[in-house]
């Protein structure tokens, strides 16, 4: 049955460890394997989509010579993704999601690594803290740049409007105001479309995917970083209904990524492992949220609750460090440059984030708690509908060609600004209360109103979002009419849904907070009115606004603890603890009726094989075994394998890992990665060479090549003589790979895979130990997806409660 | 080599699943196994201490008849621990720590379970939320009872002092005051010593152990619960330098435990698995901290950061639910019963916890941040010294006999009260500021002072800790002299170290916060004095007090995020975010020079085999393999095993799990638990009976007996005829047990074991798959401990930074 072939003298591991000169060994690749497992007719279907789809595209790429010996330079370009995605660049949504690949969180424990290891652990740990500090400083600085640019953009536009209106005509003023906005949006759109398509949207789902162990090309490289930063400034300044918070998370992660593979940083050598990278990305994401909301702990908890799948205690501490520094840098920069106070001066740094809320009354009645719950439930329902709408728009109205994408940005931003002016015209001019003017000066927008007045709807829709939110949360009780609140609420929702899917960097935190607080203020008026027969009960409108905003956030992003802490830290009102807890609970309960959270929907839509910590419902059926979900087209090697066999396997499959089998019994004794094999072949690390001249160093082995384009094989330039040589894979393979019995439950395989952050899980026969298949991320993801989409939805949503 | 014996017709799993009438099968227990692995001379040393030490004690217990068919009642008494620890009750420290045992977090996936399963999942989930609500209500109620009892105890004692002083003499007043305190301490001591020794101390380390997967007898049963609640009231009221916060965590966990095995609750059937139990214990612990500090999110984060090892998203949400309810119940009860406001009235519930802090100035200068860091570092150093001192006292001055323990409680409380009065006499009488009297009325204690005055040191040392801490944190700038602060700081430290190890329930949060804030206030005076040459800089003493308190907490308990959130939620001063972050970082950095945290030291001292998520340093050496750390005296069965063999194995070993081996090749095909075997034998579930009358139901199989006393075997009353029968273990064994190659790194085995929450990890030969050993919690713990204690310390402490 097995093609054991010529020489049965394959040595066992102990002999391999001794590195005696090895002769003989197995000669044939174990591809005759499939014959003894019953491969179903549609066996090829078990090969993940991504693997098969890539193959046809690669021959189009002309074979270029790659210097396999320049490993640092090559690995770098690999992680920067400059090479791999050239051919798939212009596919759907500018982001070739199919090219995703798993990361290797586990370090390779091979005989070779055991001998070669011993780099300084202490210096690495210190360096990690230094890098965490740099990430914090970087994120804080970029957050400040965004903050100050958007501030001056709004101020300048306001002045332009004022000058035009006074000197020429209102129509020209509106035209100029709108024109600047459209131009800014066009700049953001052009940068995103033509330079870095991965900078589109919030980008939080890329961070989630990376932390889940999925490599997404170009998502975190330098060009995406600068485009995201610059285009975020332009897009937020343009007046589109978007915010900079989500993009800051992406920026934080991208900054973190620069430190782990930067050409000039010299850090690259220290942090080669994917686990280190994920550590820094957690810290960067935490720093992003921390700077956005002035909430370092909230940022860490967001990174923990929303973005991360695997989390270590050390990650928490380093993320908190980065987040604190980012918040501090932003607060200090604001204090020094914007508020003009020197560092030694008295400063509270009370609301150090981008979102600043004034001080307001923090009392409420216990009897109001049910109203808070009802408001939270309503916000949850609306969040669910908004999420569904965004996904609907994204599914049906995403242009495929670049010029159309840019045109969409221009048209939508034009439509929005026309809508804003139109709705503003439906509003009233309100006299400014003298004491209040200074507090909300940036928020109140005069438009066509008389001196000393401002447009109530115009101020909400056309103002700088930071100031508008502070105004809606903190303005005095009678500042807004129900009519203005409901009208601006509806307009905000519509413009949010229109803007969410444009090809610009777009965060939804800000607009979500805005519509939530608008609805909350409206609810406060309704509650006060309906309670008035009961006596003179003065409800606190700020509490309703805060509950509405928190519920909207919780409903859209499905976070619990992190949202409450972000709001508590950002607003500084711990007296509102119970209302906020009710807001989060109500919104989560209500919104889950409408399916998964926005990020989860984005992951699904982007076809990112994201594995949740909890097994999906499809795998909870005990009758589904590990064998049912595994890929059965296993290509395996022997410990001593012929070069031609390795080359053939590399060329004919796109597998990233190959099990090494024992000569007898086909037991898995190790797993070797594609990138390891490519390094071995490119360095001509044959048994014969290796014994005489051990040319390899361990770090080269641990990084290595990850490209699965088969043209790489051709570039190896193996001669026929070399093809007859053999490689001692037993020395380099990862020892004791994870395995599971074929008749074990699929859910157990899922748990094993996710808890241990595996990339390959061998499925073996319980009785004999022979290999029967391999489970990868794609297999588990496909198995989970094999139930229909609606069922999948109920799984995602029910995971909120279970 | 193998004793395959008579009939080699052992069926494979598929046949077992079909449950055809089985005849033949293996006849001999595979104890001849050890012969083909090279057992070293000291092989018996690899049997964990606990297993061996228990055996000699059991013959002392007279064989009692246990009704094996009354499973509910029996399991209950098992988990209540009434039976198991009778014989070991009076050993060291009243707590037979050796009797600890691992929990089964994994559900048993056997052929039997696959067919029998299908209980309603939905109802279970709903019931979990209801139980979480009850846990919250229970913890909130007990927290309120503690709060109100302590309040009235202090008030009553104060009145008694006042009456005696005025009517008779100061000496009698002091005598009466001290006498009541000593009597209360004696009550707490007597209850703890004679009724529930596990109620001693904070009990947080029991919660940590339980959540780590270690069952500690009697730690969470009903008697411990009520003793802990009552004795905490008595002990805190007695005036000892202890607080109720830690005990509330233990109480919360114990309340949670009542719901999972309560006789009357009817819930017991729903929540049989150890995983469910750990879920509720997390929620209970979170609710305890939440009620103590009025910090629901802080409670959840404390439970996550400090107490838990394994954590699921669903646990977070349920714990937050319990914690919110507990906080709300306490706040509502206080509002209604203590502050006299009806529920409909206007209430802020601003500081809803036991610890209440008034409103105070929240400004600080940026230039002060270095001083905060220095203060935090000092607090960290002191925390480290305090921890070491407590451990020293506990190691050297723990009486073994009950009467001595009680005497220690009486003498120490007497010494403390004498010391407090003595130090108070060294203080001054201070005139009360009229406006301040009402705010700190409970804190200011008059003693021998004139009307309208209070004793400065006496108030700090003899007052109700809640009020004293609120006073020290919030009192006006000139309220305390440096002399009074330093003297009370020193007295607090000494009395804290004296009281920490008494046989009473004793939490250290309160006294730690007290000394931290006292030192902070003192630091504020010193800083103001030393900065005065630079100009008129008015430092904020409240900020220093808060930083000192936070740093003291962080240094003692080594938490980061949870401490900051607890303080932020409890005090409601988010403006202090940066000082608090500096406090936590500085204290953690400084205190780690002095070894592990207090809880870790308690775990080590209690010999609880706690496994941290991070592999210990001893196992980081790549040359240590899984085989090096495993137990090699494996006793295994065949799928069809003779009853006499099973009985013999149960009687002669204390193993809790037995691998089932394939007939050929000795591959592990399953693992069966001791408790399953006992149920099988007691129900006479032999192959012959089973085929004709399947008497078992699945739930009985899943719980089952956990007692490893060999006298149980005798009580089974097996006849010689029955001993010749066979059991079909293949049907009931857990399929596809976790296994690892013998030459895999020990650290990988550790990670596998902890990440998957295993109880048994089979070590198999990489090449053949034959079993070579088993790794249990004790093996990993012993391997980690085999390096010397000082090295272990540096591991624990370095894990703070790494």
From TrEMBL, chains A, B:
Matches recorded under InterPro entries: CBS_dom, CBS_dom_sf, Cl-channel/antiporter, Cl-channel_core, ClC
Transmembrane segments: 129-154, 175-196, 280-304, 316-337, 371-394, 406-426, 482-504, 513-531, 543-568, 575-599
GO molecular function: chloride channel activity
Subcellular location: Membrane
Domain (CBS): residue spans on this chain: 733-795
Stored SUPFAM superfamilies: CBS-domain pair, Clc chloride channel
The UniProt record lists the keyword Cytoplasm: no
Membrane topology summary: Multi-pass membrane protein
GO-annotated cellular components: membrane
Matching Gene3D superfamilies: CBS-domain (3.10.580.10), Clc chloride channel (1.10.3080.10)
Record region (Disordered): 1-66
This protein's UniProt keywords: CBS domain, Chloride, Ion transport, Membrane, Repeat, Transmembrane, Transmembrane helix, Transport
Predominant place of localization: membrane
Keyword Hydrolase: no
UniProt similarity note: Belongs to the chloride channel (TC 2.A.49) family.
Protein name per the record: Chloride channel protein
């Amino acid at each position: 049955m097995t093609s054991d072939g010529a020489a049965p003298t394959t040595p066992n591991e102990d002999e391999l460890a001794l590195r005696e000169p090895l002769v003989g060994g197995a000669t044939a690749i174990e591809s005759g394997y499939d014959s003894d497992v019953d491969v179903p007719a549609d066996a090829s279907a078990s090969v993940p989509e991504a693997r098969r789809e890539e193959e046809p595209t690669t021959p189009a790429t002309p074979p270029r010579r790659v210097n396999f010996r320049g490993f640092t330079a090559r690995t770098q370009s690999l992680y920067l993704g400059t090479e791999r995605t050239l051919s798939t660049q212009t596919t759907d949504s500018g982001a070739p999601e199919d090219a995703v690949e798993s990361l290797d969180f586990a370090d390779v424990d091979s005989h070779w690594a055991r001998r070669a290891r011993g780099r300084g652990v202490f210096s690495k740990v210190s360096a990690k803290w230094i890098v965490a500090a740099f990430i914090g400083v970087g994120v804080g600085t970029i957050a400040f740049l965004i903050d100050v640019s958007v501030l001056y953009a709004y101020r300048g536009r306001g002045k332009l409007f004022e000058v035009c209106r006074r000197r020429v005509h209102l129509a020209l003023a509106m035209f100029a105001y709108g024109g600047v906005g459209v131009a800014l949006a066009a700049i953001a759109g052009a940068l995103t479309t033509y330079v870095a398509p991965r900078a589109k949207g919030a980008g939080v789902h890329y961070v989630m995917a990376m932390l889940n162990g999925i490599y997404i090309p170009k998502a975190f490289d330098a060009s995406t970083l600068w485009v995201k930063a610059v285009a975020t400034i332009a897009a937020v300044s343009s007046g589109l209904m978007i915010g900079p918070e989500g993009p800051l998370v992406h920026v934080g992660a991208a900054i973190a990524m620069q430190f782990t593979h930067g050409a000039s940083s010299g850090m690259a050598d220290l942090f080669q492992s994917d686990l280190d990278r994920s550590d820094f990305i957690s810290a960067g994401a935490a720093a992003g949220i921390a700077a956005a909301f002035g909430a370092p702990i909230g940022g860490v908890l967001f990174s923990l609750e929303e973005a991360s799948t695997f989390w270590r205690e050390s990650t928490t501490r380093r993320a908190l460090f980065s987040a604190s520094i980012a918040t501090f840098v932003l607060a200090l920069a604001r204090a020094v440059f914007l508020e003009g106070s020197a560092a030694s001066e008295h400063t509270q740094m009370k609301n150090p984030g981008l979102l600043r809320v004034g001080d307001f009354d923090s009392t409420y009645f216990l009897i109001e708690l049910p109203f808070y719950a009802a408001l939270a439930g309503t916000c949850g329902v609306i969040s669910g509908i908004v999420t569904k709408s965004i996904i609907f728009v994204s599914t049906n109205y995403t242009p495929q060609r670049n010029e159309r994408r840019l045109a969409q940005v221009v048209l939508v931003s034009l439509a929005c600004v026309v809508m804003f002016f139109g709705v503003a015209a439906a509003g009233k001019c309100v006299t400014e209360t003298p004491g209040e003017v200074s507090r909300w000066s940036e928020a109140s927008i005069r438009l066509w109103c008389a001196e000393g007045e401002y447009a109530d709807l115009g101020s909400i829709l056309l103002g700088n979002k930071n100031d508008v939110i502070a105004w809606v949360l903190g303005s005095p009780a009678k500042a807004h009419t129900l009519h203005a609140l409901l009208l601006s609420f509806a307009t905000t929702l519509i413009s949010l849904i229109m803007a969410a899917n444009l090809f610009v960097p777009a965060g939804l935190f800000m607009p979500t907070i805005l519509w939530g607080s608008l609805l909350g203020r409206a609810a406060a008026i309704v509650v006060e009115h309906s309670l008035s027969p009961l006596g003179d009960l003065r409800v606190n409108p700020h509490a309703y606004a805060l509950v509405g905003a928190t519920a909207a956030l919780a409903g859209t992003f499905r976070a619990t603890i992190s949202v409450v802490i972000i709001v508590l830290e950002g607003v500084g009102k711990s007296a509102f603890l119970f209302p906020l807890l009710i807001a989060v609970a109500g919104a989560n309960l209500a919104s889950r009726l409408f399916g998964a959270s926005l990020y989860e929907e984005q992951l699904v839509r982007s076809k990112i094989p994201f594995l949740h910590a909890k097994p999906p419902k499809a795998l909870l059926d005990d009758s589904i075994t590990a064998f049912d979900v595994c890929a059965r087209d296993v290509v395996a090697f022997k410990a001593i394998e012929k070069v031609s066999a390795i080359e053939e396997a590399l060329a004919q499959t796109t597998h990233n890992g190959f099990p090494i089998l024992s000569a007898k019994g086909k037991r898995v004794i190790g797993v070797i990665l594609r990138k390891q094999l490519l390094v071995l072949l490119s360095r001509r690390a044959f048994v014969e060479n290796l014994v005489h001249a051990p040319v390899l160093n361990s770090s080269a082995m641990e990084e290595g090549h990850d490209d699965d384009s088969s043209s790489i094989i051709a570039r190896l330039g193996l001669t026929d003589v070399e093809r007859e040589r053999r490689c001692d894979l037993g020395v380099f393979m990862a020892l004791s790979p994870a395995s599971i019995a074929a008749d074990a439950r699929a859910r157990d395989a899922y748990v094993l895979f996710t808890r241990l952050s595996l990339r390959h899980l061998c499925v073996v026969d319980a009785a004999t130990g022979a290999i029967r298949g391999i489970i990868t991320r794609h297999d588990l993801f496909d198995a989970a997806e094999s139930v229909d989409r609606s069922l999948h939805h109920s799984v995602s949503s029910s995971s909120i409660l279970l």
